[in-house]
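Fold this complex.
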Amino acid sequence: MINRRVEKGVARGREFEIEVDGEKLRAHEGETIAAVMLAAGRRTFRQTGLRQQARGYYCGIGLCHECMMVVNGVPNTRTCQTLATPGCRVETQEGPGKLEVAF
Amino acid sequence: MKEAELLVIGAGPGGLAAAVEAARAGAKVTLLDENPQPGGQIYRQLPAGFRLTDPKALGRDFPRGQKLLAEFAQVRERVEYLDEALIWGVFQDSEVAFQRGQNSHSLRYRKLIVSVGAYERPVPFPGWTLPGVLTAGGAQRLVKIQRVLPGEKILLAGTGPLLLALANQIVDAGGQVAAIVEAGRIENWWRLARGAWGQWPLVADAWHYYRGIRQARIPLLRGHIITAARGDGQVAEAVVAEADRQWRPRPGTARIFRVDTVCLGYGFVPSVELTRLAQCDHRYDPQRGGWIPVRNEAMETSVPGVYAAGDCTGVAGSLVAVEEGRIAGIGAAQSLGYLSAAEAHPRLEACRRRRAGLLRLRQVLDEISMPRPGLYELAQDDTIVCRCEEITLGEIKKALREGPTDMNEIKRMTRMGMGACQGRMCAAALQEIMAREKGVPPAELGFLNPRPPVKPVPLPVLAGHQALE
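Structure:
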């Protein structure tokens, strides 16, 4: 299992798990979903709608929107700006994403 | 509607310094910022849950940020500070709209200071959309603040001091840097030395960074450029070639680096959406990053009462941003009647002197790093230029044959800049590509009109918009 976390210099907070496309990944309090993904070596965050290209973490400051994923059912969530929370469910986003709305 | 006496947008180096100076003088400051903690990108703090065990791990900017944050802490009680506020529009009658949580609000201001920073210059080239290619700033945030390495074998490419700083941070974190590919060349060491004279903290930074990359035996390839990233679904190799003075790759010099990660840093583009929406005049200055608001010595824009400070006015780094923020904060406090000219003058003079010294060095560094024409010739016809709408260079060229004369026309023809990033990841490149293809200066092509919401806001949030009372 790939772990690209740097231990030097900081002590991380509470450890928990999140689920990405059905796979359980280790996460810590304070980590963004994008960081959890990259720490585990997962680099494809979404597939584009037109050309079905893989895209991943690019600008890292919430502007480019390449890291958008479906988080707890909500598509177009910028994972570089969204903290991981215990048990959150994350899915690779396909195209613009579908929002399930209950009426 | 609620009216802020002095509204400051952005809690990075410029906005914090402005808020500190104005609040010290007695002005009632409202500070809006998108992040959960003050500091902006460069002085970003560790997330809640992380504990620092070695301050050196956070790099050489960290203590400077701590100093400014300590100043802010002293006035914090007197500042109305709204964090996690995503500013999505500036409207007539001095109204600013923002999203906070699941709500959208607006308020008015008497004086406004915009200090919203800059973002990495987008440079389309074959493979730049592959996972594993990321910006140097994004990599730095990941390594410094999230303490995660972006990959295993990392190539840094672009120009400027950020690459050297990032290489050190990656190595210090235990990562592997295959090479630093610097497009620029130092043509005149004497000029550089003269610019750096007196800026000893920055000279010390440079010395530290050079020593770091030598000790780690990282090849520093000056006058080289990355021409392609390749791989199946993610980066597996990068192609690097010698570059001439116009940054055009020299034929027959290509070499391949087997890396899984490429960090790109070609300098920064100022964020001007808000000063545009506030109707401030802008001018095109390629050396300062592109379109920038026109300002006077007091950091006031062409719109009276609207000030702009820091990298959003032309990229010059955090230390300049702090001085400009102070100048704007003191000036705004003075115009609100909290300071007399006699009180303001000595403080302003000190800031101006420090700023002038920093800008002298910046000028020389910018001459080395200013994008040359070859940079925007790297894209091939099938290279994506607009990431959001997936528009290739070939499609842009085809649309250009129909004769559009300005940026907004090509936007309407192709959807360039209409996606989620609202043109931040393509407009700077489109401006240069269109200028080249049409044979006109970039400034003649105008700019992509920013439209509120300048950042995506969910419709239910917009539907519930309410002015603050």
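Strands of chain A lie at 10-11, 15-20, 23-28, 46-47, 54-55, 68-71, 74-78, 89-91, 93-94.
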